[in-house]
Amino acid sequence: MEILGYIAAALIGISLGLIGGGGSILTIPVLVYIFHIDPTLATSYSLFIVGVTSLAGAYSNYRKGYASISLALPLGIVSPFTVFITRRFLLPLVPQELFNIGDFVVTRSLLTMVLFAILMLAASISMLTSKGLKERAPGEKSEGAFGILILYGIGIGLVTGFLGAGGGFLIIPALVIFLRLSMKEAVGTSLFIIAVNSLIGFLGDLGHYTLNWQFLLLITAIAMAGIITGGMLSKTIPGHKLKKGFGWFVLVMGCYIILKELFL
User: Angle 73-85/168-178 helices, nearest 10 degrees?
Assistant: First the structure.
Protein backbone atom coordinates (compact mmCIF):
# COMPACT_ATOMS: atom_id res chain seq x y z
CA MET A 1 0.00 0.00 0.00
CA GLU A 2 2.86 2.39 0.78
CA ILE A 3 4.37 1.80 -2.67
CA LEU A 4 0.95 2.64 -4.15
CA GLY A 5 0.98 5.82 -2.06
CA TYR A 6 4.38 6.86 -3.41
CA ILE A 7 3.18 6.25 -6.99
CA ALA A 8 0.13 8.39 -6.22
CA ALA A 9 2.42 11.12 -4.84
CA ALA A 10 4.17 11.22 -8.21
CA LEU A 11 0.77 11.49 -9.91
CA ILE A 12 0.00 14.51 -7.69
CA GLY A 13 2.97 16.33 -9.19
CA ILE A 14 2.24 15.12 -12.72
CA SER A 15 -1.33 16.46 -12.54
CA LEU A 16 -0.08 19.84 -11.34
CA GLY A 17 2.52 19.97 -14.09
CA LEU A 18 0.06 19.04 -16.82
CA ILE A 19 -3.14 20.93 -15.95
CA GLY A 20 -2.13 23.40 -13.21
CA GLY A 21 -4.47 21.86 -10.64
CA GLY A 22 -5.80 18.63 -9.19
CA GLY A 23 -2.95 18.13 -6.72
CA SER A 24 -5.03 18.46 -3.57
CA ILE A 25 -7.81 16.34 -5.03
CA LEU A 26 -5.34 13.43 -5.14
CA THR A 27 -3.30 14.30 -2.05
CA ILE A 28 -5.97 14.12 0.66
CA PRO A 29 -7.47 10.74 -0.37
CA VAL A 30 -3.93 9.31 -0.66
CA LEU A 31 -2.98 10.54 2.81
CA VAL A 32 -6.24 9.42 4.43
CA TYR A 33 -6.92 6.07 2.75
CA ILE A 34 -3.41 4.81 1.93
CA PHE A 35 -1.27 6.31 4.72
CA HIS A 36 -4.14 6.37 7.29
CA ILE A 37 -3.60 9.98 8.38
CA ASP A 38 -6.42 11.80 10.18
CA PRO A 39 -8.37 13.93 7.64
CA THR A 40 -7.84 17.17 9.55
CA LEU A 41 -4.07 16.60 9.74
CA ALA A 42 -4.13 15.45 6.10
CA THR A 43 -5.41 18.89 5.04
CA SER A 44 -2.34 20.43 6.68
CA TYR A 45 0.04 17.95 5.02
CA SER A 46 -1.70 18.58 1.71
CA LEU A 47 -1.11 22.33 1.98
CA PHE A 48 2.65 21.78 2.39
CA ILE A 49 3.00 19.11 -0.32
CA VAL A 50 0.94 20.96 -2.90
CA GLY A 51 2.41 24.34 -1.92
CA VAL A 52 6.06 23.37 -2.35
CA THR A 53 5.38 21.32 -5.48
CA SER A 54 3.34 24.12 -7.08
CA LEU A 55 6.05 26.64 -6.25
CA ALA A 56 8.59 24.56 -8.18
CA GLY A 57 6.19 24.31 -11.11
CA ALA A 58 5.39 28.04 -11.01
CA TYR A 59 9.09 28.93 -11.11
CA SER A 60 9.64 26.65 -14.11
CA ASN A 61 6.68 28.18 -15.96
CA TYR A 62 7.76 31.72 -15.06
CA ARG A 63 11.17 31.10 -16.64
CA LYS A 64 9.40 29.97 -19.83
CA GLY A 65 7.18 33.07 -19.84
CA TYR A 66 4.00 31.13 -18.99
CA ALA A 67 3.21 32.76 -15.64
CA SER A 68 1.61 36.21 -15.53
CA ILE A 69 2.20 37.12 -11.88
CA SER A 70 1.20 40.79 -12.03
CA LEU A 71 -2.23 40.02 -13.54
CA ALA A 72 -2.91 37.52 -10.77
CA LEU A 73 -2.42 39.98 -7.89
CA PRO A 74 -6.13 40.33 -6.96
CA LEU A 75 -6.30 36.55 -6.41
CA GLY A 76 -2.70 36.28 -5.18
CA ILE A 77 -3.23 38.76 -2.32
CA VAL A 78 -6.83 38.32 -1.17
CA SER A 79 -6.93 34.53 -1.38
CA PRO A 80 -3.80 33.78 0.74
CA PHE A 81 -4.93 36.29 3.39
CA THR A 82 -8.29 34.49 3.60
CA VAL A 83 -6.53 31.12 3.82
CA PHE A 84 -4.34 32.25 6.73
CA ILE A 85 -7.28 33.68 8.71
CA THR A 86 -9.28 30.49 8.10
CA ARG A 87 -6.51 28.07 9.13
CA ARG A 88 -5.18 30.11 12.04
CA PHE A 89 -8.39 31.32 13.67
CA LEU A 90 -11.55 29.76 12.21
CA LEU A 91 -10.68 26.07 11.78
CA PRO A 92 -9.52 25.55 15.42
CA LEU A 93 -12.96 26.76 16.56
CA VAL A 94 -14.70 23.86 14.81
CA PRO A 95 -15.33 21.05 17.37
CA GLN A 96 -14.41 17.41 16.71
CA GLU A 97 -18.04 16.28 17.12
CA LEU A 98 -20.40 18.62 15.29
CA PHE A 99 -23.93 17.21 15.64
CA ASN A 100 -25.99 14.01 15.72
CA ILE A 101 -28.47 12.70 13.18
CA GLY A 102 -30.29 10.15 15.31
CA ASP A 103 -27.56 7.77 16.49
CA PHE A 104 -25.19 8.92 13.73
CA VAL A 105 -22.46 11.30 14.93
CA VAL A 106 -21.21 13.80 12.36
CA THR A 107 -17.55 14.49 13.20
CA ARG A 108 -15.24 17.15 11.81
CA SER A 109 -13.21 14.46 10.02
CA LEU A 110 -16.32 12.98 8.40
CA LEU A 111 -17.58 16.38 7.31
CA THR A 112 -14.12 17.26 5.93
CA MET A 113 -14.07 14.15 3.73
CA VAL A 114 -17.68 14.54 2.54
CA LEU A 115 -17.17 18.22 1.70
CA PHE A 116 -13.95 17.31 -0.06
CA ALA A 117 -15.78 14.66 -2.08
CA ILE A 118 -18.40 17.24 -3.08
CA LEU A 119 -15.52 19.52 -4.10
CA MET A 120 -14.10 16.67 -6.19
CA LEU A 121 -17.44 16.21 -7.94
CA ALA A 122 -17.58 19.94 -8.69
CA ALA A 123 -14.00 19.79 -9.99
CA SER A 124 -14.78 16.84 -12.24
CA ILE A 125 -17.81 18.57 -13.71
CA SER A 126 -15.70 21.67 -14.31
CA MET A 127 -13.06 19.61 -16.11
CA LEU A 128 -15.56 17.64 -18.18
CA THR A 129 -17.69 20.62 -19.25
CA SER A 130 -15.06 23.34 -19.74
CA LYS A 131 -15.40 23.67 -23.53
CA GLY A 132 -16.76 27.16 -23.18
CA LEU A 133 -13.74 28.48 -21.32
CA LYS A 134 -12.00 30.24 -24.18
CA GLU A 135 -9.42 32.95 -24.18
CA ARG A 136 -11.03 36.33 -24.77
CA ALA A 137 -10.05 38.43 -27.74
CA PRO A 138 -7.22 40.91 -27.08
CA GLY A 139 -8.58 44.26 -26.00
CA GLU A 140 -11.97 42.88 -25.01
CA LYS A 141 -12.73 44.25 -21.56
CA SER A 142 -14.51 42.60 -18.67
CA GLU A 143 -16.31 45.24 -16.68
CA GLY A 144 -16.08 44.74 -12.96
CA ALA A 145 -13.46 42.02 -13.33
CA PHE A 146 -11.35 43.35 -10.46
CA GLY A 147 -14.25 43.26 -7.99
CA ILE A 148 -15.29 39.82 -9.17
CA LEU A 149 -11.73 38.54 -8.73
CA ILE A 150 -11.65 39.89 -5.15
CA LEU A 151 -14.81 37.96 -4.27
CA TYR A 152 -13.52 34.93 -6.16
CA GLY A 153 -10.27 35.14 -4.19
CA ILE A 154 -12.14 35.09 -0.88
CA GLY A 155 -14.10 32.03 -2.00
CA ILE A 156 -10.95 30.19 -3.09
CA GLY A 157 -9.28 31.13 0.20
CA LEU A 158 -12.16 29.63 2.21
CA VAL A 159 -12.05 26.41 0.15
CA THR A 160 -8.29 26.13 0.60
CA GLY A 161 -8.46 27.02 4.29
CA PHE A 162 -11.17 24.60 5.34
CA LEU A 163 -10.50 21.68 3.00
CA GLY A 164 -6.78 21.94 2.25
CA ALA A 165 -7.48 22.19 -1.49
CA GLY A 166 -5.31 24.43 -3.63
CA GLY A 167 -8.27 25.42 -5.80
CA GLY A 168 -6.58 25.15 -9.20
CA PHE A 169 -9.79 24.04 -10.88
CA LEU A 170 -11.42 27.24 -9.58
CA ILE A 171 -8.48 29.52 -10.34
CA ILE A 172 -7.91 28.55 -13.97
CA PRO A 173 -11.44 29.43 -15.19
CA ALA A 174 -11.14 32.81 -13.43
CA LEU A 175 -7.82 33.54 -15.13
CA VAL A 176 -9.14 32.54 -18.56
CA ILE A 177 -12.52 34.28 -18.31
CA PHE A 178 -11.74 37.45 -16.37
CA LEU A 179 -8.09 38.07 -17.26
CA ARG A 180 -8.19 36.54 -20.77
CA LEU A 181 -5.04 34.46 -20.27
CA SER A 182 -4.17 31.60 -22.60
CA MET A 183 -4.41 28.12 -21.09
CA LYS A 184 -0.61 27.83 -20.86
CA GLU A 185 -0.40 31.15 -19.02
CA ALA A 186 -3.36 30.17 -16.84
CA VAL A 187 -1.66 26.91 -15.80
CA GLY A 188 1.60 28.66 -14.84
CA THR A 189 -0.17 31.50 -13.03
CA SER A 190 -2.48 29.05 -11.26
CA LEU A 191 0.54 27.18 -9.86
CA PHE A 192 1.86 30.44 -8.41
CA ILE A 193 -1.45 31.25 -6.68
CA ILE A 194 -1.85 27.66 -5.45
CA ALA A 195 1.68 27.78 -3.99
CA VAL A 196 1.08 31.04 -2.14
CA ASN A 197 -2.36 29.93 -0.89
CA SER A 198 -1.15 26.54 0.28
CA LEU A 199 2.08 27.64 1.98
CA ILE A 200 0.45 30.54 3.82
CA GLY A 201 -2.31 28.17 4.91
CA PHE A 202 0.32 25.74 6.18
CA LEU A 203 2.01 28.54 8.15
CA GLY A 204 -1.34 29.16 9.80
CA ASP A 205 -1.30 25.53 10.99
CA LEU A 206 2.12 25.62 12.66
CA GLY A 207 1.78 24.87 16.35
CA HIS A 208 -1.62 23.23 15.96
CA TYR A 209 -0.40 19.78 14.88
CA THR A 210 2.55 17.45 15.43
CA LEU A 211 4.05 16.86 11.99
CA ASN A 212 6.07 13.90 10.72
CA TRP A 213 8.61 15.94 8.75
CA GLN A 214 10.52 12.93 7.40
CA PHE A 215 7.37 11.54 5.81
CA LEU A 216 6.19 14.97 4.67
CA LEU A 217 9.47 15.82 2.93
CA LEU A 218 9.65 12.39 1.26
CA ILE A 219 6.17 12.70 -0.26
CA THR A 220 6.92 16.29 -1.30
CA ALA A 221 10.16 15.25 -3.02
CA ILE A 222 8.32 12.54 -4.98
CA ALA A 223 5.59 14.99 -5.97
CA MET A 224 8.24 17.51 -7.12
CA ALA A 225 9.77 14.84 -9.34
CA GLY A 226 6.25 14.29 -10.68
CA ILE A 227 5.70 17.95 -11.55
CA ILE A 228 8.96 17.99 -13.53
CA THR A 229 7.74 14.91 -15.41
CA GLY A 230 4.33 16.54 -15.92
CA GLY A 231 5.97 19.63 -17.37
CA MET A 232 7.83 17.51 -19.91
CA LEU A 233 4.74 15.44 -20.77
CA SER A 234 2.67 18.58 -21.32
CA LYS A 235 4.67 19.20 -24.49
CA THR A 236 3.48 15.94 -26.05
CA ILE A 237 0.00 15.21 -24.60
CA PRO A 238 -2.96 17.32 -25.78
CA GLY A 239 -4.15 19.22 -22.74
CA HIS A 240 -7.88 18.83 -23.46
CA LYS A 241 -7.60 15.03 -23.63
CA LEU A 242 -5.69 14.82 -20.37
CA LYS A 243 -8.15 17.14 -18.65
CA LYS A 244 -11.10 14.99 -19.67
CA GLY A 245 -9.41 11.80 -18.48
CA PHE A 246 -8.47 13.38 -15.17
CA GLY A 247 -12.02 14.69 -14.83
CA TRP A 248 -13.48 11.19 -15.08
CA PHE A 249 -10.93 9.88 -12.55
CA VAL A 250 -11.83 12.62 -10.07
CA LEU A 251 -15.55 11.93 -10.56
CA VAL A 252 -15.09 8.25 -9.68
CA MET A 253 -12.93 9.11 -6.64
CA GLY A 254 -15.47 11.63 -5.35
CA CYS A 255 -18.30 9.11 -5.60
CA TYR A 256 -16.14 6.48 -3.85
CA ILE A 257 -15.36 8.78 -0.90
CA ILE A 258 -19.04 9.67 -0.39
CA LEU A 259 -20.04 6.00 -0.49
CA LYS A 260 -17.22 4.95 1.85
CA GLU A 261 -17.80 7.70 4.43
CA LEU A 262 -21.59 7.58 4.52
CA PHE A 263 -22.63 4.05 3.61
CA LEU A 264 -19.74 1.54 3.93
Answer: 150
